[in-house]
Amino acid sequence: MKSILLILRSSLLVSGLFLTTFSFASTLRPTSLKCEYLDNPGAVDVITPRLSWVNQILDSKIHGEHQTSWQIQVATSSELLTDNKADVWDSQKQTGESSPFILYGGQELQPSSKYWWRVRVWDSKDNASQWSLPASWTTGLMGNWKALWIGAPWDEESPRDLINGKTLLELYPDAVTLSAIQKLAPSTPAPLFSKTFNISKPIRSARLFTTGLGYFETYLNGECFSDDLFVPNLTDYSSRVSLDKRRLPLRLNPTSFSVMYLGYDLTPFIRSGENVLEYILGNGFFNSVNVWVAGYGSPRMIAQLEIEYSDGTHETIISDQSWKVTESRIVSNDIYAGEIYDATKTESNWQNAVLRKAPDGNLTAQTGPSDKVMETLSPVSINKIGVNTFHVKFSKEVSGRIKLSNINGQEGDTIKLHFLDGSVSNYDYNGSVCYVIGNKPNQSYASHFCWFVFDGVVISNWPSDRLSKDDIQAEVIYSDVKTNATFKSSNPLVDSILSMWVLTQKNNMHGSLPSDCPHREKIPYTGDGQLSGAMVMHNFDARSFYLKWLTDIMNTQDSKTGYVPNSAPWEPGAGGGPAWGAAMTLLPWEYYLAYGDKKLLQDCYEAMKAQTNYMSRWRTRTGTMFSRINRKEYYLNLGEHLPPFTSPDQEFIHTYMWMTCCETIAKVAKVLGNQKDVDLYEDIAGDILGAFMAKYYNYRIGSYGKDECDVIALHMRVIEEEKIVADLLRILDSHDGHILTGYVGTRIFFETLSDNGLDEAAYKALTVKGYPGYAYMIENGSTTMWEQWDGKNSHDHPALGSGLVWVYRYLTGVKIDPDQPAYRHFEISPYIPSDLHEACYSLETIYGQLKSAWSKNDKYFSMDIIVPEGCSCTLVWPVKNVRVKGKGLISTEEQGTYKLLSGQYHLYSKK
Predict the structure, then answer these.
(1) Which tens digit of pLDDT belongs to each residue from 367-390?
(2) Mean pLDDT, to the nearest integer, of 873-884?
């Protein structure tokens, strides 16, 4: 073969056609370049950022293709990369099969600088790929702040929920509704800041680094240059007074505080001559009034514009007292109550800004995704219900805002929007919007600093007796987290259940945080977040989202005790218990399984141990756990939450969570090579299990208690499992196969059934109609998941869907190998219900697309499988004692089990 190639090369040279070095084309193409999990980030504070990419396999017919080497080039411009002049870093060819977590290894990165990079790879035959398309990242200020925090002179330094140092709860203990509380501490007008500057010579770059608390919008020369909403990401900004005088009094010693800033490239927007940079600040969570939260202070901002001119000189424009400020047209705004916008108001009477106290939190480049308008919906119906009053209905319940267009009416008249959701609760927690009509024709409006949850809206005092679909649309808003998975089956109910959960989760992602509900509370409960974590990671690319939130949890952790509160950032209305604080230990492990980030485990490890060790403080004399923080506060010591029938006692659930955390620490210690901790925490977990069985197991009847108790016990791997399984089947039969569990138990309910041979019972509980169950929600017209199985209170809670991960792990059979996480190796072993004819799950992993799809008919059972580049799969064929056909199968010693390397497969057998 070699001699033939030499002859071919000689012939081409003779004919003059061999113009470049002869080489084979690679079967790989690097795509989806990311820096620190982000696409072309505008501000990165990491000194040695991690770079990653995904290798696309170009030939669908080959199997086992993988990267063997890589080369990264980094330059100060994309043109230099095109010219193959990497003036910052050229790694040269490096041997390695990994495409994520590649540490930058070039020159020291400079603040406020943009870097362009590209990568190429070599395949299994050592053929080089084409260079990827270039990507970029921009370094942040890296601590080089010159700007000052400024605010409006009409505001006080303190938040509006503190009056003369006392909380509203202390002053008005009977004011519990949102409307009553808002009347006690109304919002002042949102401040509008302005800075004029001149550009007298050509510029090379202009980069703005900035933030505003609670939220900010920024404009250059009257134009909004970013589609970010509700920024910056919510964090624990600073210390707060009187936290022990709130709804749930708790004295905390947070580990750290942080304030996130963003970076924007203004180079395309700067013009020669005069430029005007403007900001509007909203209250956000920084200055809100509600029983659920505690304010930090009045709105404030900081901005630093770094300009580099073409002649090499620099100029820095900073926020200070020279900036001007006036009252904006946003007369009132609150994250819960809503917004009043007065288009008749003249923005005049400019004053100098005043200095404000800097928050305690370190200014850190925002690491999580911003909220954006992710979808727009037109009404499905508009019904007139009164004089100039309309009921507008949308196809599903969403989180976002209403955009009005074509507003033409009497100046000074007020349009009011009242948002409707599917909840049957009487709480007045959804807020409203008022728009005062100005004097311009064809006005348009959407609220600025608050989101709402709605499937309908009532519009009153619309300036016409007709409202058309062109006049109104719903803007769906949530954190810009990519949906990277699809599921479809032959059972529309299963598909609807999963779609219902996905929509609910989207509605509950704001500020790069998972909330329990996006209207009444809006706060990031640690329990709800950790329970839903696996489901999120099976449906979304949540790498940057959870990386940010895990940092919040570590920052909120008590530095003295290790205690992790019920929300992160902590808000004093957040009830919970040990299953909530367990997020610090359980969520990093789920993250590692999904994304393979060992560094995250290293960063979290001490905090994980501190949280788990804190649980041991509540060890009882018999060796179980029973948390009693502030003994009178039940909602600081929750066990199970909102089960449909009876509930295990608090001690039962606390002990289960303690053991689960210890086992998880042991797994993490093994990954990190800490055998001493492996042995320690495995021993502790064993002792806890023994104490649990001694206290709760009824040997006579083979039971751990009513309803969900046996599910928890089986998940703990207790002895005499056959007896417990039999008792669980009896309990399931007594409830006609319906789900038995509350928040904690639902996370493991379906998987525990399948792990104990009860696949059929798991599928029945998933699909059975009537109360309690998912079908019951759909039967009652819901498009989102409920807080409670009976439909009381919120209709937008994702927690009860946490156990649906069973669909992906068992129904389509995709199970991660903990020894080779991030699907580097995984198993496919699907369960095939008798009445289901097909199911398909597809996921974009960090290595590329994974797919597990099966179908059956009267004669054949078939599977279509995709194994990502560089990955492998163990396939357990679900039809026994048959010959499996298809290209690329590698048989193993175990009958019916096969090994699959990267590539696409179509496999089949007789039924």
Answers:
(1) 999 999 999 999 999 999 999 999
(2) 94
14: confidence class by pLDDT, cuts 50, 70, 90? very low
Percent of the chain that is helix, strand, coil (3-state, to 5): 25, 30, 45
H runs (alpha helix) in 796-901: 805-806
Read off the pLDDT band of 808 (50, 70, 90).
Answer: very high
| Rounded-to-integer distance, Cα 521 and Cα 513, Å | 13
Residue 821, CA distances (Å) to 68, 487, 548, 590, 868 in order: 19, 22, 21, 10, 13
Residue the block writes with tokens 């696996």: 534
Separation of alpha carbons 869 and 30, rounded Å: 11
Q: How many CB atoms within 10 Å of residue 288?
A: 28
The pLDDT, as a whole number, for residue 689 is: 98
| Burial grade of 158 (CB within 10 A; 0-12, 13-18, 19 or more) | middle
Helices (runs of H) and strands (runs of E) counted in the chain: 18, 43
Residue 729 CA to residue 203 CA, distance in Å, equals: 73
Percent of the chain whose predicted confidence (pLDDT) is above 70: 96
End-to-end CA distance of the chain: 45
Report whether pLDDT(181) > 80: no
Neighbours of 5 (CB within 10 A): 10
Is the pLDDT reported for residue 22 higher than 50?
A: no
- Does 841 have pLDDT greater than 80? yes
Q: SS3 for 854?
A: strand
Q: Can you say whether the dihedral through the CA atoms of 65, 66, 71, 74 is positive or negative?
A: positive
- β-pairing, 338-342 vs 432-436, is parallel
Residue 535's alpha-carbon distances to 505, 553, 614, 748, in angstroms, are 9, 19, 27, 12
3-state SS record for 65-108: CCCCEEEEEEECCHHHHHCCCCCCEECCCEECCCCCCEECCCCC
Q: What is the pLDDT of residues 520-553, one digit of tens each?
A: 999 999 999 999 999 999 999 999 999 999 999 9
Give the tens place of pLDDT for each residue, 245-291. Answer: 888 888 899 999 999 999 999 999 999 999 999 999 999 999 999 88
Closest C-alpha to 116, from 164, 166, 78, 156 = 78
Identity of residue 539: N
CB 219 within 8 A of CB 605: no
> How far apart, in whole angstroms, are the C-alpha atoms of residue 739 and residue 748?
11
What is the average pLDDT score of the chain?
Answer: 94
Among 871, 745, 869, 748, which Cα is nearest to 816's?
871
Residue type, 904: Q
817: burial class by Cβ within 10 Å (0-12, 13-18, 19+)?
A: middle
The alpha carbon torsion through 791, 794, 799, 800 (nearest 10 deg) reads 10
Helix (H) or strand (E) holding 775: helix 774-779
SS3 684: helix
Of 669, 668, 637, the closest CA to residue 653 belongs to 637
Q: Which DSSP string do the residues of 270-332 spell out, in sequence order?
A: --SEEEEEEEEEE-TTTT--STT-----S-EEEEEEEEEETTS-EEEEE-STTSEEEE-SEEE
> Using the 8-state DSSP alphabet, how is residue 884 labeled?
-
DSSP code per residue over 213-235: ESEEEEEETTEE----BS-SPP-
Q: What is the maximum span of the chain, computed from C-alpha positions, in angstroms?
A: 96
Neighbours of 839 (CB within 10 A): 25
pTM of the model: 0.96
- C-alpha triplet 649, 651, 656: angle, nearest 5°: 105
Residue 15 has pLDDT above 80, yes or no: no
What is the per-residue pLDDT for 338? 95
